[in-house]
Amino acid sequence: MSRLLLTTTLLAAIASQVACDRGSSTLAPDSSEAPRAAPAADYHARADALAHRFVILDGHVDVPIRVAGAVYEGLAAPPVHDHTDDGDFDYARARAGGLDAPFMSIYTPSEFQDEPGKSKAFADQNIDFVVALATDHPDKFALAVTPEQVRSNFARGLISLPMGMENGSPIEGDLANLRHFHERGIRYITLTHGKDNHICDSSYDDAHTHAGLSSFGREVVAEMNRLGIMIDVSHVSDDSFWQIMELSAVPAIASHSSCRHFTPGFERNMSDEMIVALAERGGVIQINFGSGFLDAAYREAEEAGRAELDALLVEHGTDWQAPEGKQLIAQYRAEHPLPRVGVAVVADHIDHVVSVAGIDHVGLGSDFDGVGDSLPDGLKDVSMYPNLIAELLARGYTDADIEKICSGNVLRVWQAVEDHAE
Fold first, then answer.
1. What single string gives the DSSP state of each residue in 159-200?
2. pLDDT, tens digit, for every residue of 264-281?
3. pTM metric for this prediction
């Protein structure tokens, strides 16, 4: 990774990406309720203890692409093995927050899929970075390709680095590449990203190229089931989702999605019907922490601001990446602050999943390092999981509930996929 030279197209893609469950008595709150008071201090003490007692698995952390972006800009790679003020993840903060198994996102920009070989090579380079992180710092990190390895690493005091591939474009139309990435440690694949690809349609693309899955995409679903790779339905179109539900022989995950109930019309999030269908097949939705995924007012203000910024940059003959453009953006944002979103809103999404699907079907998928400065107050980086746990405790969630949300539900799905493959 340290030798990687990214193209200007990738930086634009990064900028776009950054810009852009309990079967008991817990009920989803009314969105019209006044903001809740912060949980009492005793909840925080208990939450911190639970955060270090239970495995915390986060379905989506974008550390590899953050490092790649730094290298492009000529900066030293952030020392995620130690402590850094850059980004949302490093070892010290992960330890403080009790994070034990962040799925490292092996992200590939959609623009790469038009050039044969580029997506696969880029994915391999990002996997190399994760492997080196574990190999070079064996006292801190370890790779994990099974739930049992996650638990074993936890017992040894190590942070596991499982890997999920965000965007299936590196498969490049060849099931042999799917087997290659399984051998390299990929244990879930988000089938597409910002555009339709050769596997399926994207929730962000209006082209509806395949009206869901392509014929090759159907082969990919079957082969992922056979190999033991979890299918991730985040980013896929609704048509793609329903076809995956019909075809997959094992449960699926949404590694970093939230509830469309709170963001009407935002297809990237999941509707209640989709959450129920995912749960009926044993799957889990892992809640995204980005404020645009959580709150409609924030999302509307963000989109309006982006349109105004586009016009402002054109007026001044600059762009999002130029120094002058960045200065204009900073000034605009200081003068037009976005609505504040807090940790309680993440808990609202968890409550909602629980109310429609049950406690066994919700988890955490922060999108740390992938949603820029849109993270909620109280969940700004990987040191802050106890704040969310405290909020859940204040709402009446039990220790057993917390363990399921932190990791138990996703580890169950992962094990079911492994068992089916065997």
1. EEE-EEEESSGGGTT-HHHHHHHHHTTEEEEE---SS--SSB
2. 999 999 999 999 999 999
3. 0.88
